[in-house]
Amino acid sequence: MIACLFDLDGVIVDTAKYHFLAWKRLAKEWNFDLTEEQNEHLKGVSRTESLEIILKLAQHTLSKEAFDKALEDKNECFLEFVNQMNENEILEGVTDFLNQLKQNNIPFSLASSSKNAKNILQKIGLFEKFDAIVDGNDIVNGKPHPEIFEKAAKALNTEPKKCVVFEDAVAGVQAGKRAGMKVIGIGEKEVLHEADIVIKNLTEISIQDLKNMIA
Ligand code: B16
Ligand code: MG
């Protein structure tokens, strides 16, 4: 039986813009202006790792205490944006595709690095739809480590070779491939070249395509 594993940010909703604004506000405190291009490197990466990357870019250091405080401040700011989210932020094709999966009895899980994933799903009204949710609170190793997708497959009682992963980040595509799964990249072919196929959004994929990939 086929199963689908969905990343959140960049696949279901575009929370990257809110992560960006929150990191930008924080980095400003050290007179560092984070650019959108630099923000690309933070997609799919954990909160702690993101801060490490930004500090390196800013050539700035923080004590352990200041580091932890910065993580808290960033999340507080991010949550201000999350609290204003609603179902209008669901990306094109998502609702229709999830409904098609339901109609075809294909189970699906969330597999997001975000520790705020459940909260975000509640805000956009999709929490109840998922058969399982694996998020940043459930894993030790972040993407590109395969742990998150292995756990999501287990949560659906299925084998990796029956799973199709939907990912927008390079680290996420790599994690899916390392887990021995088929991966559909959401975004640009040049960037996500390790994926089995790359599409712009979920309007471009059908249940038959999934069946062909897994056959
Ligand atoms: P949080 P995904 C990821 O979500 C984001 O792409 C990444 O930018 C963020 O740092 C990470 O979640 C952690 O988020 O601070 O909310 O725990 O793409 O894996 O759904
Ligand atoms: Mg993502």
- Contiguous low-pLDDT stretches (5 residues minimum) are none
Q: Could you give the distance between the termini?
A: 10 Å
> Quick one: overall form?
globular
Overall helicity: 40-55%
Strand content: 5-15%
CATH superfamily of the largest domain: HAD superfamily/HAD-like
**Second rung of CATH, namely the architecture of the largest domain:** 3-Layer(aba) Sandwich
Total domains: 2
CATH topology of the largest domain: Rossmann fold
Give the total of beta strands. 6
Strand count, sense and barrel status of the largest sheet are: 6 strands, parallel
What is the CA-based Rg, rounded?
17 Å
Describe this structure in words.
The chain is globular. The chain has 9 helices and 6 strands; from the N terminus they run E-H-H-H-H-H-E-H-E-H-E-H-E-E-H. The longest helix is centred in the middle third of the chain and has 19 residues. Helix 1 crosses helix 4. It is of the alpha/beta class and 215 residues long. It is 42% helix and 11% strand. Strand 2, helix 6 and strand 3 form a beta-alpha-beta unit. It folds into 2 domains: 139 residues, Rossmann fold (3-Layer(aba) Sandwich), CATH 3.40.50.1000; 67 residues, Orthogonal Bundle (DNA polymerase, domain 1), CATH 1.10.150. It has a 6-stranded parallel sheet with strand order 3-2-1-4-5-6. Bound molecules: 1,6-di-O-phosphono-beta-D-glucopyranose (B16) and magnesium ion. Magnesium ion binds next to loops.
